[in-house]
Design a protein that fits this description.
Helix content is 14%, strand content 29%. The chain has 194 residues and is of the alpha+beta class.
Length: 194
């Protein structure tokens, strides 16, 4: 699988298809708008699906450490209404039961999320992960009972001829050396890939 990356979120194993695109500055009125913005290089990358010429030949994926969505939930709704991205992955959403996913992504995305809880964290607030998949893609939540102590969500996305497995995971800074947390995530990865 070949990847084209923009911004600083590229993994070292990704291979560039083209030179990095120019990042266009946002209009001044939107400089503080959170969430996915079309043509923004920060956190944006494409997956070229091996030359497949179907409508899914290039998935537009956006990643962001949100640092809290509750106070700006309407801004995420406006940003996602552009529908520039097939997949939106967010960490540190800080969402809870009182916030509906449709408040941030409208009706055009299926949203799969794991909010922080006493099962996956020692803290009561913060954390949380989500992945929003545009409804033109077929996505399914993978129930991972092994990873209940980890703030992660696994999704299977059916594409032409194969499936893409996607995990969004948040490892809090105070738990990066927590062997139980790392082992649980690793076990869930092994279980999903088996």
């Amino acid at each position: 699988m070949t990847h084209r990356t923009l911004g600083r979120t590229a993994a070292s194993t990704m291979e560039a298809l083209d030179p990095p695109a120019t990042v266009e500055p946002l209009q001044p009125a939107f400089t503080s708008r959170p969430g996915p913005v079309c043509r923004s290089g920060e956190g944006v990358f494409q997956i070229d699906t091996n030359g497949n010429q179907s409508r899914h030949s290039n998935l537009q994926i956006y990643y962001q450490n949100a640092g809290g969505m509750n106070s700006v939930i309407e801004d995420y709704l406006v940003a996602s209404s552009d529908e520039c991205f097939d997949i939106i992955a967010l960490t540190e959403t800080w969402l809870g039961d009182s916030t509906l996913s449709v408040q941030a992504f409208g009706a055009n995305y299926d949203v799969f999320r794991t909010d922080r809880s006493s099962r996956n964290s020692l803290k009561a607030t913060g954390g949380g992960v989500l992945v929003a998949i545009h409804r033109r893609l077929k996505a399914q939540l993978i129930d991972d009972t092994l990873g209940v102590c980890v703030e992660q969500v696994w999704v299977r996305i059916k594409l032409a001829g194969y499936a893409l497995f996607l995990c969004v995971v948040y490892l809090p800074p105070d738990r990066t050396r927590d062997s139980t947390l790392i082992d649980s995530h690793t076990e869930s990865l092994e279980r999903i890939s088996a």
